[in-house]
Amino acid sequence: MVEGLGRNEQGADGPESAEVSSSSEPVEARIGRVLVRSSLAMAIPVLVGGLLAGGSKGLYSAGYAEILVVVNYSVATRILVWCARISPVALMGGALGSFGFVLVLLTAAIIPVARASWMDLVIFGVALIVAHLVPVIVTASRVTGKIAFDGFRPSFRGGGHSGAGSN
Fold first, then answer.
1. 158 lies in some domain
2. Does the pLDDT at position 3 exceed 70?
3. Residue 80, domain extent
4. How far is CA 100 from CA 71, 82, 111, in A?
5. Do the beta carbons of residue 74 and residue 101 sit within 8 Å?
6. What's the number of domains the chain is made of?
7. How far is Cα 140 from Cα 22, in angstroms, rounded to an integer?
8. 9 within domain boundaries
């Protein structure tokens, strides 16, 4: 379950902490905060992997990638929260716009240091991909589980279901 996503439809608290679940903070902000926390939790394995793969050069490259990921999630979250206040269409536009904006920010952050003596582009690229994907995969599975456990699972009551063991 995603930490701090709040109360379910019946008002019952999940395993998340009471102070977070009673918050009136938007869901987009809570999910963004979980992504940032997950990215920070990934920092140690990413940095150790960079150090083992490329020594101090790999460590610096992986660290720079980790910083960019945390900034990326923070900027995208702010954009999505702002757009969600306007309308669902603005939220979708904000998601697409923040993706483009963050790509420009990442490009602008990478170009000046691409040829720096401390930069290993292969380690940087792998660290950037891992640091982006692992928190998204973990958070997506938790959010999906949260939705399912809140009673949004499809119901197969009645005669319309023919499961794997049915004839």
1. no
2. no
3. 24-145
4. 15, 16, 17
5. no
6. 1
7. 22
8. no
pLDDT tier, 26 (very low <50, low <70, confident <90, very high otherwise): confident
DSSP the chain: --TT----TTS---SS-HHHHT----HHHHHHHHHHHHHHHHHHHHHHHHHHHHHHHHHHHHHHHHHHHHHHHHHHHHHHHHHHTT-HHHHHHHHHHHHHHHHHHHHHHHGGGTT-TT--HHHHHHHHHHHHHHHHHHHHHHHHHHHIIIIISPP--STT---TT--
Per-residue model confidence as pLDDT tens digits over 96-142 = 998 898 899 999 999 999 999 999 999 999 999 999 999 988 888 77
